[in-house]
Amino acid sequence: MKLSSPFFHHAMPTQRVMLLVCAALIPGALIQIYFFGFGVLINLLLCAGFAVSAEYFVLRLRNRPAKETLKDNSALLTGLLLGIALPPTLPFWMTFVGVWFAIIFAKQLYGGLGFNPFNPAMVGYVLLLISFPVEMTAWLPSRALAENLPSFSESIQLIFFAQTNEGHTVESFRQLADGFTMATPLDFVKTEATLGLMTSEIFSQARFDANLSGWMWVNAGFFVGGLYLLVVKIIRWHIPVAFLSGLFLTSSVLNLYDPQLFSPAWFHLLSGATMLGAFFIATDPVSASTTPKGRLIYGALIGFLIVIIRSFGGYPEAVAFSVLLLNLAVPTIDHYTKPVIYGHKEDKEAHHE
Amino acid sequence: MSDQLTHNIQFNEIVKPAPGQFHGGIHPAEFKSVSNTQTISTIDSPRELVIPLKQSAGLTATPIVSVGDKVVAGQLIAKKQGAISANLHTPLAGEITLISPKYAGHPSGMMSPTVTIQVDDDQDLSNQKSQGENLPKLADWTLCEPEELISQIALAGIVGLGGATFPTNVKLKAQSIETLIVNAMECEPYITCDDRLLREQPERVLQGALIAARATAANNIIFAIEDNKAEAIASLSTCIKKFSPAIPVSIVVAPTKYPSGGEKQTIELITGQQVPAGQLPSALGLVIQNVATLHAIYEAIVNRKPLTRRLVTITGNLVTKPGNYWVPFGTPIEYIMQIFSISQSDCKRVIIGGPLMGNSITNFSAPVTKATNCLIFNRPDPKEKLWLTSATKHDPCIRCGECETACPVELLPQQLLWFSQSDQWENLENQGLFDCIECGACAYVCPSEIPLVQYYRYGKSAINKIKQNQINAERAKQRFDFREMRIARTKAERALKHQKAAEARQKAAENKPADPTGKQTAINDALARVKAKKAALNEPAEHSSNPTNNKVD
Amino acid sequence: MQELLIATLTLVGFAFVCGGLLGFASIKFKVEGNPIVDQINEVLPQTQCGQCGYPGCKPYAQAIAEGEAINRCPPGGEAGIKALAELLDVEILALDESCGEESLPRVAVIREDECIGCTKCIQACPVDAIVGAAKQMHTVIESECTGCDLCVPPCPVDCIDMPEIEVTIDDWQWPSPAKTPANETIPVKVIS
Fold first, then answer.
1. In what order do the strands lie in the sheet with B179-184?
2. pLDDT by residue (tens digit) across C59-117?
3. Distance of alpha carbon A221 from alpha carbon B435, whole angstroms
4. Which of A1, A2, A9 is closest, CB to CB, to C188?
5. Which chain B residues are closer than 8 Å to C175 by Cβ?
């Protein structure tokens, strides 16, 4: 067969790209492990294992070359992203269901890498969130606040047996000295707001502040990882910048409108999964928009939706939902943001598209 | 990497920076220094020339010689067919031994018509003195009419020597041209023939440009060149100052970026405008010519030489003396390998042209033609990737968008790939498939190592085939409909004729007169007489035997 | 009770209005003939060979519009069946073997030495691609021949060949990477 030009090539191969993204997750993951315990580490390992096994299983069913396809490291990356997003003490079988669903239904059944319209990690996360709301919102308080985080062996016991050898459950680790069960800052803000408190009252609480600092460090870690990806040109600037700008603008507008009802922009930027979403999740190339203008719109709308859902919606955290909603809109966005091909400028003006 | 000029160029009233820029582009390693430090030289003449009859866009030329003819250097051996075609001349004296199909370097591996010439022994290629046949003598070209110049260029068989081989005489016939742009970009890695030509023979190129400008009535000339050719810029600039041409000549320098030498991209760089889709640069008052083509124009008009050889960059890490050489057309590549001591066991393939747009061939009997601007002989590199061609084997597209960022025509290569894989022809055309210039920038940057340009070439040829089939089917339908109509018409005519005849017969039976010829009356009279006589014979009993005087006759 | 009556009457009235509008539209905007037949005919290859069992492509198109199977056209081949399936929104079927098999395009060639000038093939050709007259030599106009085979049976001396049309260098097509065997490779230099 005659293969045509070009005969030169210069690009990082896909498998290396995926591996470097996994590597960029490390700073944020380490910080998260530090602040929230070994559960995070165990989850990461479990998810990686489940993801790779799920992909292998489905590829064999599909009669595709399993070992070669696994080499592209995309299953590994999906597993790690989901592992970061899950609470550190989630029962292992829930993790299994989430990861296997993500890989099999949200990725392989569409045709594998490159064919999935939805971000697989987010599909898995949303499945778990909707099916097991209690366990999925049972985050531990961060190190600064917690009485004690479970040790490595205790984490293993919690994950696999739902209680430690001494009979402690996840709930007992979540309880503070005064009996209060701490949630994530976003969750806390939402529940306190429904009780009628104003933001200034919420933010001034000492335990809120202590808990929040852990989350801010985690976001900072993912921000650093994201910057690395930008520098190495694995991701382009359009989506993260648009995402963060959209988020910042929406939250600032709301905050200016009613500072007591809506949290300030810095809180939205540095809590929850914002930085993880901006640099690692929304930038998943397969499910994101592909045209430059389209990416700006995609990122900005995700940021906008996150603030809206966080402020007005029922769930405290909204990155997964926003990303999935915008994944739905990607074909339309791509259609209307096609670049004008060389020489077709007059066509464009004539058709007013 | 930004689009800024990376080399230090001295600007003055002749040398200016390019005002425009084009989208995308890549910066591959240049490999120019392998071959651009040696002066141009010649090679020993080959024993045999294999001259393909199709060395231009358009129709194949028809041979006007026969097997056994003796030819002299510069003799016309094939005439152009139709408007878009080119004459062919033999570079060397010899005898025609074969006119038959042979492999000429086409990517399909198929053969095409060629003329084989056994070269006479006593040729000396390094002797540039004119020998053999020349073109007709022209008066001073500065006084010639454009038609005379254009017809001499057509006679010489000059085609675009940048690689596209479009007949130059057709291009120069364009109307309302303001500017002649000389394409000296030479953006592809490895190729340095235009660079050396500008360094060593700028006055010939300049004169060629002035001749071409006169032929198209252009009123200024712009040399478009990349900034990695500082010596060529300097040499050309000096030459322009010395020559003081009648019309303004300037040099516009663009940042080194592939593919700045594509005609559309060059125009965008020099003028900031885009050529409207489906139209030629002449719509903007521009005509573009390659440096080597202008040199050939000079040779044809001033030295009366037909186009019989071209400068070829012979380069690669297997070549001991890389550089630029005058190679006569028809020289087999295996002869070049022989004189450069490249063994076929070391060299598995040669790239004809550049590494991003050229052809990779393994059959070294192919000859050097008008399109051969470069030959790259590289040792197989153990680190070379083996691109897997089948779609189930190469990595899938991850929609990263790098290809869109690199595309100089602002297409969406990933969309073209998706539609091409699933044969969705209409969508493929709507996405601008036929605007693709096949430069290879997209495949160069693809992380999944997908042979993108191959998909687009497949799509283009498949769509063209379908369109041709539709035209044929439409013709067949028309012929079928006409046949049906013809048969029905014949039937109807026959039926009408029969009907008319039947009507006529009937009419005749109704309207005929009592006795048109009188024959019937005579018969009736005779019958009446017979009847009367019979009656008379039966009556004599009543009358006595009176002899009557009635005599019965 | 009254609400029920009002609701029922409203909905019935609404149904009548819609029905009336539709009936009016079906009369006012009625299209003469069946445009789908022309659309189907556009897809068919116009070989006029009759392998489908109908005397030409237009009759087959009409039959398809009335419900005939779409897989009876060998010259159209798989691509043709796919195009018809898309046009009519029906299932793609495999080519009906009893109608013939898909083959590369052919062209008829008369062996001129053997031709006796009987004009039987001229009468058979559906696109008038054969030139000749009684007791004169017949020959096929290659560019107009659709390769339908109808001239071969009538010839009393069997002097017509049907060779496949050769792919020349001018109409060679690049193969699709998506349809090539998995073991084809070419070395590509990696620039660091």
1. B15-17, B249-254, B220-226, B179-184, B286-290
2. 899 899 888 888 888 888 888 888 888 888 888 888 888 887 777 788 899 988 888 88
3. 45
4. A9
5. 458
| Phi and psi at residue B138, to the nearest 5° | -110, 155
Residues of A in contact with B362 (CB under 8 A): none
Question: How far apart (Å, rounded) are the C-alpha atoms in residues A63 and B250?
Answer: 63
CB contact under 8 A, B398 and A8: no
Chain A contact for C173 (CB, 8 A cutoff): no
A50, A100 contact by CB (below 8 A): yes
A246 SS3 class: helix
Positions of chain B with pLDDT under 50: 1-2, 126-130, 542-553
Contact status of C188 with chain B (Cβ, < 8 Å)? yes
Low-confidence ranges of chain A (pLDDT < 70): 1-2, 347-353
H or E element, residue A103: helix A92-106
Residues of A in contact with B274 (CB under 8 A): 342-343, 345
What distance in Å separates residue B113's CA from the closest CA in chain C?
10
The structure tokens listed for B294 are 């202008």
Portion 208-247 of B in contact with C at CB < 8 A: none
pLDDT tens digit sequence for B106-125: 888 889 999 999 998 766 55
B483 contacts chain C (CB < 8 A): yes
Strand B179-184 to B286-290 pairing = parallel
Q: Report the pLDDT value the prediction gives residue B553, as an integer from 0 to 100.
A: 41
Q: Is B121 on the interface with C (CB under 8 A)?
A: no
CA torsion sign for B390, B393, B395, B399 is positive
How many angstroms separate the CA atoms of A269 and A289, rounded? 23
C-beta atoms of B400 and A341 within 8 A: no
Residue B207 Cα distances to B18, B224, B331, angstroms: 23, 16, 28
pLDDT at A217: 93
The subunits that touch chain A, with at least 3 C-beta pairs less than 8 Å apart, are B, C
DSSP letters spanning chain C: -HHHHHHHHHHHHHHHHHHHHHHHHHHHTPPSS-HHHHHHHHHS------TTSSSSHHHHHHHHHTT--S---TTTHHHHHHHHHHHHT-------GGG------B--EE-GGG-----HHHHH-TT--EE--TTS--EE-TTT-----TTTTT-TT--EE-PBPPP-GGG--PPPGGGS-TT-EEEEEEP-
Question: Under an 8 A CB cutoff, do B110 and C180 touch?
Answer: no
Instruction: Tell me what pLDDT residue A193 has.
Output: 83
Q: Which residues contact A224 (CB under 8 A, 6 or more apart)?
A: A27, A28
Name the residue of chain A whose CA is nearest to C180's CA.
A1
Which residues are CB-contacts of A57 (< 8 A; sequence separation ≥ 6)?
Answer: A104
Query: For chain A, which residues make up each domain, given as ranges?
Result: 14-338
3-state secondary structure string, B198-248?
HHHCHHHHHHHHHHHHHHHCCCEEEEEEECCCHHHHHHHHHHHHHHCCCCC
- Write out chain C residues lying below 8 Å of A2, CB-based: 174-175
CB contacts under 8 A, C 110-139 vs B, are 126-129
Contact A3/C191, CB-based, under 8 Å? no
Chain B interface, mutation test: which of A7, A63, A119, A351, most B Cβ atoms within 10 Å? A7
Query: Measured between alpha carbons, how far apart are the two ends of chain B, in Å?
Result: 139
Predicted local distance difference test score (pLDDT) of residue B130: 45
To test the contact with chain C by mutation, choose from B393, B428, B482 the residue with the greatest count of C C-beta atoms within 10 A, namely: B393
Q: How far apart are alpha carbons B95 and B38 in whole angstroms?
A: 34
Q: Select from B353, B19, B20, B407 the least CA-distant residue to B187.
A: B353
Continuous segment of H or E residues that includes residue B101: strand B94-103
Query: Is residue B374 within 8 Å of residue B333, measured between CB atoms?
Result: no
